[in-house]
């Protein structure tokens, strides 16, 4: 099972199929994913053995199988999911509905270009060899970048300046060194 560290790394095959699927097909894809994860966690041979409306507790779930199933689903979807997921959504059908909503909401939230590039950067850094020298250089650059975000840039445009601001600008310009 995949570990749950922040935003999980998604298995591209499921995400690609979900993204390419029509709106009517998406709920079935998610339910199939849930049934596959449940079958694997419980040691069943086929997801066909998993009834969509049967409760997880009735199937024999405990906290360990719930976390294992959550991790499998998280690895496929890239969603960060709580450890109580299986108990908050007590059947495969309920869980699939919840996940489909989260996956669809993610698709409807526009990602800025900067965030998209950060996601790519994150993947590139994860793929780097463990040589410390290169990582130190990256850490220094990232530290400088983060430092620049600690102090927001003041808006000095004249359009947003009030009367007091205008007088302060004039005073600064007329001041002698």
Automatic annotation (TrEMBL):
Keywords: Multifunctional enzyme, Phosphopantetheine, Phosphoprotein, Transferase
Keyword Transferase: yes
SMART domains per record: PKS_PP, PKS_PP_betabranch
Protein name: Acyl carrier protein
Entry keyword annotation includes Transferase: yes
An example molecular function term from Gene Ontology annotations: fatty acid synthase activity
Listed PROSITE patterns: CARRIER (PS50075), PHOSPHOPANTETHEINE (PS00012)
InterPro entries linked to this entry: ACP-like_sf, PKS_NRPS_Biosynth_Enz, PKS_PP-bd, PP-bd_ACP, Ppantetheine_attach_site
Swiss-Prot/TrEMBL GO biological process terms: antibiotic biosynthetic process; fatty acid biosynthetic process
Carrier domain: residues covered: 28-103
């Amino acid at each position: 099972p995949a570990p749950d560290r922040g935003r999980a790394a998604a298995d591209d095959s499921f995400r690609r199929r979900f993204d390419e699927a029509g709106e009517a097909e998406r709920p079935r894809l998610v339910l199939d994913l849930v049934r596959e994860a449940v079958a694997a966690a419980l040691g069943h041979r086929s997801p066909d053995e998993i009834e969509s409306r049967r409760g997880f507790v009735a199937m024999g779930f405990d906290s360990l199988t719930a976390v294992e199933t959550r991790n499998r689903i998280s690895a496929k979807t890239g969603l960060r999911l709580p450890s109580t997921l299986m108990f908050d959504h007590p059947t495969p059908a309920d869980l699939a509905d919840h996940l489909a909503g989260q996956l669809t909401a993610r698709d409807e939230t526009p990602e800025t270009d900067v965030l998209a590039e950060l996601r790519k950067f994150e993947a590139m850094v994860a793929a780097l060899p463990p040589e410390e020298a290169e990582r130190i250089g990256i850490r220094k650059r990232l530290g400088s970048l983060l430092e620049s975000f600690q102090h927001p840039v003041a808006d000095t445009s004249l359009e947003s300046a009030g009367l007091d601001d205008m007088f302060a600008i004039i005073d600064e310009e007329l001041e002698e060194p």
